[in-house]
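dude i think i finally got it to work??
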Amino acid sequence: MALRKALFIFLLGNLYRTKRVEKRRGRRYKNFMTTKKERALIVLGQLEKLYPETPIPLNHKDPYTLLIAVLLSAQCTDERVNKITPALFKLADNPFKMAKQDVEEIKAIIRPCGLSPRKSKAISELSKILICKHGGNVPQNFKDLEDLPGVGHKTASVVMSQAFGHPAFPVDTHIHRLAQRWGLTKGKNVKETERDLKNLFPEEKWNKLHLQFIYYGREYCSARGCDGTVCFICRSCYPNRRRPVVVNKA
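look at this
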């Protein structure tokens, strides 16, 4: 009986001490909590330090070739697109030439990029629309761009920002993932995340920041390489984070 009583007192004492330690840790970790604005400043500072220059990753020579390259990059890496576009642009590097090409010939060249039946048809059709409606020029507004076959809001945003310098913040699933990990948004999709990022960062930073996000994600915070607790920015934004981050899928 005495042994049971002693064991009970010992366990109760351990439980009490454990709870006190956890309470102290909780207070200590709370002091490290950051606000969304503070996290945004951490992100801006670190990205600017790492990537003061942000070259456009897709090789192109004008708005039309950029538009085609961005269209091809859907569900495909920029590296692979850059290997495919030289042959495609040798065949046709403007809408007038591209509109004359057989869709099957375009498809054969871009097959390694994936989704070649859909992409080749879109390239052919949008080239004809550019000739008929825009004099062979790529339009400099979101509405006309998004009316083109195969061109969604993200593609239009990339063209507007990188071809014409218009303030835009293109958000894909990769940027959506980073913004979630860094506590910059609780958006359930890329549209909501884009809205939150635009509200959080100055407009004059959008175009460069978009590319900085991409470069950092590839190098330090990839889908498999970081779970929200590994890379420098994740640890700086949430120094007390111990568990992997569950990201809302875009």
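The mean pLDDT is 89.
im so relieved honestly
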